[in-house]
Amino acid sequence: MKAAMKIAVIGGGHGCHAAAADLTDQGHEIRFWRRDADALAAIRQAGALRLIDASGERSIPLHCVTSDIGEALDGAELVLSPLPATAQDGVAATMAPHLTDGQVVFIPPGTLGALTMSRIIRQAGNRAELSFVESGTLPYLARLRGDDVVAISGRTTRLPSGVYPARQSARALAVVGRAFPAVEPLRDALDAALMNAGPIIHSPLILMNAGPMQHLDSWDIHNEGTQPAVRAVTDALDGERIAIREALGYGAPHFPLADNYDDEREEWMYGNGSHVKLTDSGDWREHIDLTRHRYMREDVAMGLALLVSLADWAKVDCPVATGMLAMGSAICGEDFRQSPRSWEALGLAGLSRVDLQIMLTEGEAL
Predict the structure, then answer these.
(1) Global pTM?
(2) What is the secondary structure of 176-245 as a DSSP string?
(3) Is the backbone of residue 282 left (phi > 0), alpha (psi -120 to 50) or beta?
(4) What superfamily does domain 6-193 belong to in CATH?
(5) Cis link prior to 165 (omega < 30° from 0)?
(6) Rounded mean pLDDT of 320-336?
(7) Other CB atoms within 10 Å distance of the CB of residue 179
(8) Which of 73, 221, 290, 294 has its CB 3.0 to 4.6 Å from that of 98, i.e. a possible disulfide?
(9) 226 with 208: CB under 8 angstroms?
């Protein structure tokens, strides 16, 4: 049996609630933090989260539910924050005074949040030796069904993950692996950022389903929204992602998105049958605010901006990603190419490939 860990779960999203319930159910000591104390009222009153999954519905008592970030982080070996990339920098600033040597910060997926969070924490004056881990997807397919109820329709069976700085990979991935045994090692954090499935799956879904989403009260973009035309664009976009990976020397497996939809192909991150489980759950039939939804704000505005700008730097043609980034910009009336996660905004455009690899391995100088 795995030894129990003290784990801080940071944030109030679907994945955060799923992790708090699931990891507690596995026997780990969970400190569940959310900034909004009022939003924690239902869980505090119940003293537990209700978890719904393939094993049924049950109540999961939590060790600690708190809006005090210091209390949540104190003594935690693993700090898990499965929040959208749009929230990562703010969370880093909140955690900065409290993180200590040896802690592993896991942000599945990432969009190179490992780099930006590390910078923010160091700029706040924290010089602790920390490891940041990104992965190709969230560990869970999950949705909240109430303030204290979370449903998990799928768990990762393969979780490709990379570490920043990469010199700490062995130890950091060993820590994450005690909570998530599906972890598979990648070379570094950029390897992981280029494994991020969100911009590839979600960008075509939200852009090509824009009409139904603005017309109907609710829409399931993973069910009726995933039509052959959408899948064709997804495959083309994914081909561009893989071309960038290969141009930068990242080898197979590339976890092509086609594997997610075809059980005759290689097992994908959530295992065979995961797409059917997701659509059968009905949890993704929802009202979607096209311009504010995380699929637009995280996956298009940040994820595609990273891909397109990195492709420019690496001299890889990405017409589909470039066009979709322009579509999102037009819909929202903003220039997403100026994203804070673009290669230029990250301050990486002036690096040579050799200098980039050194930075990813050793970390940036203080």
Answers:
(1) 0.95
(2) HHHH-TTEEE-SSHHHHHTT--HHHHHHHHHHHTHHHHHHSS-B-TTTTT--HHHHHHHHHHHHHHHHHH
(3) left
(4) NAD(P)-binding Rossmann-like Domain (3.40.50.720)
(5) yes
(6) 98
(7) 21
(8) 73
(9) no
